[in-house]
Amino acid sequence: MTVPQPPQPAQPSQPVQPAGRKFGALPPEDRERSPYTGWTRAHWEATADSLLQAVVPYASPRNGLINLPGARPSWSGPRSDGLEGYARTFLAAAFRVAGSGGQDPHGYLARYGEGLAAGTGHPVTEPGLDGKHPDAWPVIPDTRQAIVESASIALGLRLTRPWLWDTLDDEVRTRAVDWLLPALDPPPIDNNWWLFGLTVGGFLLDAGVETERAQASVDRALERIDGWYRGEGWYSDGDNQAFDHYNGWALHFYPVLHAHLSGDRALLDTYGERLRAHLDGYRRMFDANGAPMPFGRSLTYRFATLAAPWLGALTGHTPLTPGATRRLASGTLRHFIDHGAVTDEGLLPLGWYGPYAPMLQGYSGPASPYWASKGLLGLLLPDGHPAWTEREEPLPAETEDAVTTLRAPGLLVQSTAADGLVRLHNHGSSSVFGPADPNYARFAYSTRTGPSAAEETVAVVDTAANPGSDTTPVATPDNHFALLVDGTPTGRGPVEPLGGGPGWAASAHTPRRADGSELAGVRVLSATLAHGRAEVRVHLVTGAAPGTPVRQTGWAVPDDGPAAQLHAVHGFTKDAGQPRTVPTGSTPFGEHTSTACLDGTVPDAPEGALFVSIASLTAESGPEPARTLAEVRLSGSHDIHVTWKDGTTSALTLTADTATAP
Questions:
Q1: pLDDT score at 129
Q2: Are 239 and 190 a contacting pair, CB within 8 Å?
Q3: Per-residue CA distances from 119 to 104, 122, 176 (Å)
Q4: Quick one: which H or E segment has residue 119?
């Protein structure tokens, strides 16, 4: 396996032309200390150095911006994207230097210090800016995205303060503070953006600048996110039902790191314990091959998913042993590198492994993937820390079969030790972008499959930026249950979690037509029961006209992917027990995928129409048919009794409004 060899750093005042680079060799593996991954701290240092040196050719003349290549700018524009390149790579450099006790053999801080001086040297609104000042930063009041980047800049300055901030002249520091101060105001978006002001405030408190205003920003942010805490270590990302990786790389990351850097024990006791609770379930979302769960937005940040596990090790608020932390973290970072997430030029493209446009959001620009720098936080742990020295230990996904119910976010996490594969069943999280978002709207996700890019045409209102709409072609989405209206599958409306218990979770929604309107009076109550590799999928439809077609789909898999199965149990049209197969478009794991599909119609049933199937996704070779994995018996109105292959049992009772287990 290879990563780029760091070239000699460019002279800070000289523009550098892009040049092709190839990955070089990593340090030797250590299979005694790291039997699962072979990686040590030296591999992390080499990876960080390679990523940082690869962006040097794309810096503006005095390093104020890093303008990475790419045909797709963000909606904030190229100059904002250049600031993003500076800020996010600076965070990686800060982890690298601070974790080495200030040692900086590659001259990172000199480069970023010069960029800070050049970037704040001229107001962005000055006429003729683009031609006269190619290093200048956009100002926060005029460019909202700059608020996001202010947090990375402030955190980088806080971590490297003795070696960078304290060495700058007063004029540069004054300009930098003036640029940062607007980030202390309440943000324009009522979600994790509050924590950017907290992070800027934390730095200013540390530096003894504008301390009253900074403290007020910190206090406001903590008060706001406390209202979103739902328990078990999970926050919603605003006043909504959005639960995803932002919990780890934002909602825990900023307050816990602030408490740690401030030495505030009381604050750390509160937010650190929430982090510990979060990690207890979150660690189960990583595949034995290192892959995290591709679920939610901003997935192009890739190994930023490691921010929370490393933060737990840094602060001591973690259920993971040091060896398990490194095994998880090194496994994930190596997984992405092994699967082509870094180009031959050493850059992180917009995508999951290689470039993959369908998973992106409008705010994603060429430098957006470098929020992955948060996953390098482990470099703050010194060489002798147990997370680097203790022997690696296995992940939960490779020790035993498990089904874990995360009640607060309404997620069911299912893993199998034979193949190390992890599946997530979503009965609690909805997208802030609307019910058609494939990164949230599917009933199930896995570490080796992704949601298909094709989706039913449904209007999407972007609540996180400028209002607008987006539509995509009509198609058959994977892992979905739909009614068909004029031949078009309905979308899953906002998720209403109905709870869960050992091995099950349930939710309800009102289906939506292709134009985004609700099917008035129609309700779908859905539940998943899981055991081993088997999934029993149950849907109770009420309020739909008799004869309405319905469709259940399974996992979208490429030809060389894991084996996906789907078996009709009740309510579907049976044809020798075999579902038909339909194309489901591209996913991050393959350009062409297909999924099994079951069809049926709503009968004349006043108490609701029940549809039941058994699904399976496995990387085991020659798997037995899904129908052999469970025996499902129905009784009463809508009582489901399941006897799994190993003889254990599960039961669930559905009504139009509830799902309960005895």
A1: 58
A2: yes
A3: 22, 7, 9
A4: helix 108-119
> Contact, 206 vs 156, CB < 8 A?
no
The token duo for 142 is: 């005029």
- pLDDT tens track for 37-51: 999 999 999 999 999
> 449, 587 in Cβ contact below 8 A?
yes
CB-hemisphere CA count at 13 Å for 607? 7
Nearest to 433 by CA among 240, 169, 647: 240
**Is 370 in contact with 342 (CB distance < 8 Å)?**
no
Report the interhelical angle of 41-54 vs 78-98 (nearest 10°): 150
- What confidence score (pLDDT) does residue 662 get? 86
> Cβ contacts of residue 361 below 8 Å, gap of 6+?
297, 298, 433
| Among candidate residues 109, 138, 110, the one with its CA nearest the CA of residue 122 | 138
Rounded CA-CA distance 147/184 in Å is 9
pLDDT digits (tens, 9 = 90+) for 537-565: 999 999 999 999 999 999 999 999 999 99
Q: Per-residue pLDDT tens for 85-134? A: 999 999 999 999 999 999 999 999 999 999 999 999 986 766 555 557 99
Reduced to 3 states (helix: H, G, I; strand: E, B; else coil), residue 526 is strand
pLDDT confidence of residue 194: 98
Which of 175, 116, 179, 118 has its CA nearest to residue 146?
A: 179
**Residue range 295-341, pLDDT digits in tens:** 999 999 999 999 999 999 999 999 999 999 999 999 999 999 999 99
Alpha helices in 181-321 (DSSP H): 194-207, 211-226, 246, 253-262, 265-282, 307-315
What mean pLDDT do residues 232-260 have? Answer: 97
Residue 325, phi then psi, degrees to nearest 5: -60, -50
What are the phi and psi torsion angles at 427 (to 5°)?
-125, 30
Report the pLDDT averaged over residues 466-493.
74
Residue 430 clears pLDDT 60, i.e. is over it: yes
- Start-to-end Cα distance in the chain: 51
CB-CB contact of 240 with 217 (8 Å): no
Token pair belonging to 166: 């304290």
Rounded CA separation 376/421 (Å): 25
Scanning the structure block, which residue is given the tokens 């403290």?
Answer: 215
State the Cα–Cα distance between residues 423 and 418, nearest whole angstrom.
14
User: How far apart (Å, rounded) are the C-alpha atoms in residues 371 and 302?
Assistant: 8
- Helix, strand, coil % (nearest 5) of the chain? 35, 20, 45
What CA–CA distance (Å, rounded) separates 522 from 513? 12
